[in-house]
Amino acid sequence: MEKEELYLGSHVDLKAPNYYLGTVNDAISYGANTFMFYTGAPQNTFRKPLSELKIAEGRALAKAKGFDESKLIVHAPYIINAANYANPELYEMSINTIVNEMRRTAAFGVKIMVLHPGSHVGLGAENGIKALAKALDVALRSDGTDVKIAIETMAGKGHEIGVNFKEIKSIIDQVPNNDRLGVCLDTCHISDAGYDLTDFDSVIKEFDEIIGLDRLLVVHVNDSKNPMGAHKDRHENIGYGYLGFEVLNKIVHHPLLNGIPKILETPYYNEKAPYKQEIEMLRSGKYVDNWRD
Fold first, then answer.
1. Structure confidence at residue 115 (pLDDT)
2. Please, is 57 exposed, middle or buried when counting C-beta atoms within 10 Å of its C-beta (0-12, 13-18, 19+)?
């Protein structure tokens, strides 16, 4: 049997005064061996200069603590919507932001950037997919890095695209040079989109048949506040939602996902980060009842 390589971590803030050094220290305090961060606020495109972010210090600490930079993740800002070609200004800004974020990702030594595929704003999923594919083609030809883009699976609220595996596959296929395109599988999102994660073997088999497991770069491990097919996208702490600990634990330790970074984006409770407790439970495979109390 193949030895398990479990890379398990969480979203971690990048904030003053220690910036990336603080990000790495927080991840260490959670007992993580991978993590995900934004290179600035996720809601806008304002970005501090890389020279102010203590990148060298953070990378040195990460190396000293045994983090593998190939398993670390950056998340692109939410404001990007490259599926909306009806707004030329937003579309151009989205492409430029994708390129800039890929370059910033590379500056941290990180190789994977998660991207929300966006909304077709009522123009139809096929048109949104076409617009996004064109934007990704431009970005991948102009960024000058080796960073891979992981297109995130979405819950299906509003006019989102990327709601099922066939839509993700269509995005990838419409980009001529797509070697650096992959997928981020979000457990809350795909459950909300209608995939039955109690039968994860069937779900991952379908993913492999449609997209291919070689494209799976990241897994977001989130419980859901809503039942399967709700199309809501509201994350819940591990064991407190409709998916539950056993389902998520099986996914985390699934042999077909061995070596793939797994990132928690679960909500704070009582203004506290839940990640240390959740990582401990998922790493051990043992759930602690009422662990938030």
1. 98
2. middle
